[in-house]
Structures are given as C-alpha cells and as structure tokens.
Fold these 3 entries.
Entry 1:
Amino acid sequence: MQAMLALEDGRIFRGKGFGAAVERTGEVVFNTSLTGYQEIFTDPSYAGQIVVLTNPHIGNYGTTPHDAEASKPYIEGLVTREFSAMSSNWRSTEVADEYLERNGIPVIAGVDTRAVVRHLRANGVMRGVIASGEKLDSDALVMKARSIRKMDGTDLASVVSTKTIYEWGVGEPKNQTGDALLGATSEKPVKHVVAYDFGIKENILRMLTREGCRVTVVPARTSAEDVMAMKPDGVFFSNGPGDPEPLDYAIETVQKLKGKAPLFGICLGHQIFGLALGGKTYKLKFGHHGGNHPILNHETGKVEITAQNHNFNVDPASLPDDVAQTHTNLNDNTMAGLKSKTDPMFSVQYHPEASPGPHDSHYLFRDFRKMMDEWKG
C-alpha cells in the first residue's frame, strides 16, 4: 500500500502504508525518544498531531496494555523510517501494526525521517496530511493541509478530558520498577489530591498514588468551588494538547484556587499557571518532544535529564516579581519551571513521570507531597 505525507508548504514525502488505510490530518511534529513508542502513541498531549519518530526502527517490541498512557492512541498519524510488521518481546500482546490499524491510526514508513526533521527544524512545525492508496493526488493533499485549523488558539484539552469524575485505583507498577521507586512510600493513602484532566497520563496518577495520595480525577471544566467542596489536600493540573490561551476556564480556576490549597502543574498545567499568574505564552518553532532534554534546577544547581512534549512555552519576562523561575531548559534557555513566592504552588514544563523517559525528576511528586504535609490552610 502506497502512502504519502503532504505538508502545507508543498513538501511531499512518499512511503509505504501501514496501520489503518485512512486519511488523517494534523500538525506535524517530531520526537527524538529512542524507546517508548506506545507511550507516545497514547499520550493525549499528542491529540491533533502527526508524529515523526527519529528512532529509525519502530514497532519491533510490539504493544501491551501495560505500556499505554490512556485507553487509546491519540496521535493523528505516525511517520517512521522502518516499521516492523512483527514483534519480538515476551510482553507483547499485539503487533504495533495491528494495534494502530485497530485504532484507526495511519502509518507511513520508508520515509527519510532525517529529511523530515531537518525540514521542520528549519521551517517550523506545520500542518500535514497522511493518506494511503494506489492513486494519491499530491496537490489536493497539500491544499487540504493548508485548510486544517491551526493549533494556535485551539482548545483541545476539553476535547480529550474525561467527561465524568472518577477515583483512580492503585494500578500495577507498570514499567517503573527498581530504582525508579526509591523514595516512594508504601503507606495507605493519607492525602486527597484532586487532579484536573486536560489530557492526563496514567503514570502521573501512579506517581501521585505512590506518594500516599488518594486521587480524584475531574473534567477540565470543573469549577474551583466544586473542587474545594471535595476537601482536597492538594490540586494537580495535568498535561494536555493545544494552546493554553483559550483555556480561560482553567486560568480562572487556578486564580480562584491560588492560596486555598497546594497546587502542582505539569506541561499544559504549567502554562496555565503562567497565564493565571499574569504571564504570557508563545508557540515554539518546532516544540520540545523527546526523552533527553537537560534541565537546570536553579534551587539545587543540578541538571536533570527530562522527557518533554509541548509546543507552547511561558515567557519568563512577562511574569510578575512574585513568581520565580525554578528551572531552565539548557538546550535553548527557555523557561522550564516556576513557583509562586507567596502561595504554595509550583509547576514544570516537562514530564517528571517520564513514560517514556528518565526518572531524574520523580522528586517533584515528593515535593508536592511535602508541600501538602506542611500546608496549614
């Protein structure tokens, strides 16, 4: 089956089709992680995006429900150099090709992904279309790519968010074992955390649970009043897709909760914090997507290797004096963390829960637990 990736600027990439034989559109981004492709597939932060994986060999270890970050894949499409039609791993329950086909996700393989990445780095992320079939009209696909709604100004968080409130149960340890759990508690839940779902990853919920928290997950548009009625010891704001600026409901929620409970935000949650505290956000040229981004922690002087997945960032120059920058991305010196100087709230622009990625930043969940322990209300 022939396949094509068409970009809005007219660039065409041809290859072989796998997965679902459907046409999908989205913003084309690239991820440099070496492993963890199923976690990438199922990260709700990738809603609305076609993902180019720079690791040249994808699908070789298959898929398993234990590695999923959500109940289904959220990527719009996948671009790879080589895509394995078989799996070689005792944990695999379904080959990646069948898994993506069953979930309606198209794949284009046999593509020079280095060329795609260089093109996106030089020109910025852009809208694209993946299509497969015997006769493909490249001009028509380019025109369709140009007609796609841009990510800027789009609220995708409320689209991927849960529609109902639920209690998170203690799940299996997943792939976070051994040294990854050093410092984690085995006590019964003693703190109640309400977690806003803007596209939350399941390993975030696992990490909160390991710190002795009972977690209640709520929809993105849940009011601050309804959350406070649940009597939380802390409130968490999750990762998610899209532009943070249209999320006026979430920004207002943070402003209402500020000073009433300890707050912790990750990725989109971090951007919402920045806007709620008076700052501004902007779109990065090609985003940060990968598992090896170096982050300087200004409070400890240490460098953490982190997992990242975001297209927007908080402008540190726009923040008021009562907000401190706590972390910096050493690749491009962008802001990667903040905290309020007056209220118990902090956030980071990366994924301390990893999945996939390193475990250097697991301490942030312990910091949140400590903040709740010390909170006097």
Entry 2:
Amino acid sequence: MDASLIQKTAVDVKLDDRQVARRIGLIALATDHTTERDFVRMCPHDRVGIYCNRILNENPTTPENLRRMQPRLTEGAELILPDEPLDVIYYSCTSASAVLGNDTVVSTIQAGKPGTPVVTPTSAADMALKTLGAKRISILTPYIVETSAAVADYFADQGYDVANVECFGMADDRDMARVNLDSLFEAGCAALAADAEALFMSCTALPSAQVAQRIEDAAGKPVVTSNQAGVWLSLHTIGITDPVPGYGRLLTMAPAA
C-alpha cells in the first residue's frame, strides 16, 4: 500500500495504567500441562492477569535434574513483562522447590524481578497446612522414590509429623499430567492414613486440585495440593481474599498469621 495514503488518527489516544488490577507471574516448566489451567480455573479473571514464562526442565525428575533448573529461574522471571512490575511470582515445581530450598528459589527469582514476592508450592503448602491446623500429614506424590523422599524430608524439616508417603513411581512430568482424575481420587483416599490430620498431594503437574474437594467429602479431612495451595497463597499475597468454592476448604480460609 502507498504509505502516503496512511494518516495518523486525530483521536486523542489515552493509556490505562493496567488492563487488570493485579498481575501474577508464573514460572512454569517447559513440559507443564497443568499449572496455567489451574490458575485460570481458580483466579478471578476480572481482577487478575496471569502471565506465564516457561523454563527448560529435564526428565527424569531426579533431584540432580531438578537442581539444574536453578540458574534458569532468574531469566525466567526477568522475561515476564520485562521492565514492568508483577504483584507476585509463582514458581510451578514442587519437587525442585523442595530440593533447592525456598530461600534459594526466592533469591534466584528476585534477581530477575527485584522486590517481587515469590510463592513456591512448598511454601504455599506449608502455610496451608498451618492454616488448617494439621501437624501429622500423609503425602502422595507421582515421583520416583528418591524425589518423593526429598519432598517428605522438606515437610519433616518444617516440623511436620509425616505419617506415610505413597508415590506412583513416575519419572516424566508429562505422564504425571495425564493421571486420570478417578485414579487420583482413589489414590488420594488410599494414601490418607487413619491418624493423619491432612493429605498433601505433591506436584504441580498432577491435576489434583480438581479432586481435592471430592477427597475431602469422602474422607472428612482436609486436602492440600500444590497448585491449589499456590493459587490460594498467591491470591492472598496480592490482597484477593474471596472464597473460591469447589477446590477444598483451604480456598475458603485466610492464611494463618
């Protein structure tokens, strides 16, 4: 087209500060099928924007491979709306958060987005269990034994009495994302020990947030999942406290002081 025919509009174009009041940044694994969908399901779309960046991860999900993600977290954070603020960042990997430690994850992410609050699945689950008043817990993971042990050790180090740990023995997070919901429900009910006060279902790849309420209704005890807790703490961190029904009692509660 002849450029001389194009004219600049006479309309005085104005800019809004933001499209939405709050911004959540997600750092997801390259192979993640679940986290973005969970956040879309549980977050109020009219008030929260969800902005995701993916970082390279390697299967199998061994502690050694999980540690290799650490140096990628800084750039992963930096490339979410560069030079613009986020209200919170959620790092979507439970097992890596347990292996690396929350402090390491937070400092590495904040190197890319200074001053931004960071939520990990492990820090969110810890706060969730405290809020629910649970001290003796059962843990269900999709991981291999070695990685499951790292998650169990994390919660033991936080002072929880781990009643039992059950795992699926999976090494590839893409398979974890495909676990059937009925299978997750049955496995969750089976893993919840009679003397446990709550069940933690580890892994952001598992679609376990979708069965948390169902297990609670059947077992009569609270259920915490990685992404369910991550959404809950991320929302409360940015001042959104409305109850989110259908995903377990946690999402109707305010975090413990």
Entry 3:
Amino acid sequence: MPKLLFLGDIVGRPGRTFVKEHLVSLREELGADIVVANAENSAGGAGITKKIVEELTAAGIDAITLGDHVWDQKNFENEIDTLETTCRPANLPEKNPGRTHLVIEKNGFRLGIFTVLGRNYLTLKSSCPFAMADAKLEELKAQCDAVFVESHMEATSEKIALGWYLDGRAAAVVGTHTHVPTADGRVLPKGTAYLSDAGMCGPYASVLGREVEPVIESFLDGMKRRFPVAEGDVRLCGCLIEIDPSTGLARSFERIEICKGG
C-alpha cells in the first residue's frame, strides 16, 4: 500500500534546515512513497521563493502546497508558473497565477493534491472551500487513484466540517495554518484520514515560530513590531497515511513528530 508523508508548515531557515537534515532517513524509516509539505512560511517565516522551492524539492519533497501567505515574497507571482511541484490554494480567484492542483505519480500510483483556504478569520479573497473541493474531486477523478486535500484554515470548526463533508471521497483531509499539532488524527468512518492541524516544521520555543518576547510585547502594548523567526526546539511535525489504491481511501493514520537530538 502506498504511504504518504505530509509535513506541516515549514517555518523559516530553521524549519528548512531541519527538514533537509532528516527527510531522507525519515522517508526510508517510514517507507514513505510520496512526501508533500506546506512551505508557505519557508522564506523568513512568510511566503516562499523559487530558490527555496528548488532547495526543498532537491531535499526530497515531491509536492509543495501553499496557503494565505502565498504572495508574501516579492516577485513570486512571476515565478510560480515555472514550478511544476508547487500548487497555490485552489479557491483563490481564477486570475491568480499558479497551479490549482498537482498529480504526483510514484510506482504506478497517482496522487492528486490540492489546498483550499478557509473563509473564517483569513483575509485573502477566496471562494467557498466546500464547493471548490467538490469541483476538484470531480476534476481529478479520472486522473488519480486517490486525492489528498489540505485545509489551510484558521477555524477548527471549518476544518472539521470539511473533513466530515469529504469523508469517503478523499484519502485524507489534513489541516495547516495554525502551526500547533492537534491530537484528533484518525480515519473517519467512511475511510478518510483526518487531522485538524499537522503542526509546523520549525522552532517550538516560540509563538507559532516567532521569537517569544516581541510577540508578548505586542500583546501588551498593541504596537506593531517585527517578529523574527525563532531558533529553539526545532521539530518536524506531520503525519503518515497509508492509502488503498483500489478504493482511494486511507488504511491507516499516524501522527509524526521528530525532535532535535532524538
């Protein structure tokens, strides 16, 4: 049975370095056939660049997904169309550049991949994630053996609702964006693996990947300031999903967390 390793938001240089140092051995240890990662925070904690995409792909990541920080880095809108391993959220306006999904094939198994943005508490303009998921699943039905859906959302309720909505139709619905790994990973009754948030690949001695003190000061006085990427307690977080290619659904789910030094 094919195994998919999904990595939560890669945050800044610490996250990128840790993934590059551990991915090859982790992939071998887990027997992962396909590796997918959200990397929308990989450039200084906000956005991504073509150079970083190439760096992460060279490290062994097969597909890169993005979220509401997709356009944070200058000129990336002019680079994204050249990146065959990268897709932006599918429910952004149609005029946005970039691929709305990916199809990755390994050992004869074809996995469709797409991300939908939530519409609660996120400011980036997007269409209904539920309707877009319907449309994408229909579009990919003839192209893939299974489909992985990333729910890049702030509201846990919106993520959970999407998981139940797609149960039995997608191999997995896994959440990103909030950078905090959740404990609700499981295979839903009709066969869709679900997790509210995969967490992040980055520094956990932080506030969502940023240095603690500036964030606390901002909460205390309400003033804007820079939030540099932190460096302590770097971890790799995500999940491993075994997929039955005959049904396109999940056989098993396991949360993954690797800490520095062990």
